[in-house]
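Phosphonate ABC transporter ATP-binding protein: structure, please.
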Amino acid sequence: MLELKNLTRRFGERAAVDGVTLAIPQGQMVGIIGRSGAGKSTLLRMVNRLTEPTSGQILHDGTDVTALRGRALRGWRTRCAMIFQQFNLIQRLDVLTNVLVGRLNHRPGPLATLNSLLLRFSAEERAMALDALDRFDLAEQALQRADTLSGGQQQRVAIARAMLQEPRLLLADEPIASLDPRNARVVMEALRDVNRRDGLTVLVNLHHLDTARRYCGRIIAMQAGRVVFDGPPDALTPERVEAIYGVPEEALEAETPQPSAA
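Here you go.
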């Protein structure tokens, strides 16, 4: 269970996230929607502790995440994997090595640090990475440089890398914002597969309302840093959509990616 209690982040006088309280059971796939500047990215970055809360508390299975420091904090960031809009791959390295980077936080001790710096990995770790690439239909690209792949392929590499962390929770910050409709569909189906097959909690920030409805069993809408809707997709009525976005639903940009049969 992930719990956010009165979580707040201020930048000067402005509250980017303002008193958010949520309880997210293990295994949910949650879409977070809202206009640009609503606080979606700041919220996810606080959960991962990339951004420090001004006040409030983050709990996961009874552990106070907001109190973690040092090695314990690094352990949390391993269990709480994050993927980004811009993929964050090492473009000059091959795909396999990029995926293997997900194992670095699993290595204690000074020798492990040296091996990490030299990007040395065991046969077992390489097998794990190849299995992950095969799962996301990327095994044939394992030895290609990351910068030779399409955007959709790079985002799937980022998901494979996250899975090598063996996380309990996966955060995705606008993972399809820079992708064409076909690649957006493939990436969303990969996230849904991780949620369903591995039982991971997935929190995904989404620009497109239709995508959130299709793939997420729970939708949270934010406005001015606050949660203004929390419920199933079918409860997100046209009236509520207009209240969230400030325009009628039909005026929102149409979305074209369609999921394959579940």
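Notes: The beta strands are 2-11, 14-24, 29-33, 55-60, 63-64, 80-83, 169-173, 201-205, 218-223, 226-231.
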